[in-house]
Amino acid sequence: MSEAEWLFDDFQIGQEFPPASYQVTPEAIAEYLAVVQDQNPLYYEGPLARASEFGGPIAPPSMATVYASLRPGLRGKAFPPGTVMVMMYFKFLAPVKPGDTLALRTWVAEKYQRRSSKYLTFAVSAQNQRGEMVAESRRTLIWPK
Amino acid sequence: MTPKRSFADIEVNQELPPVVRPVLQEQMYQYGEVSGQYNPLHRDAGFAATTRFRQPIAPGPIVLSYLSEVLTQAHGADWIREGEIEVRFILPVRAGDTIKVGARVAEKRAEGRRNLVVYEVYGENQEGRRVLGGWAKVPVEG
Question: DSSP H helical segments within A6-112, as ranges?
Answer without folding.
Answer: 26-36, 47-51, 64-67
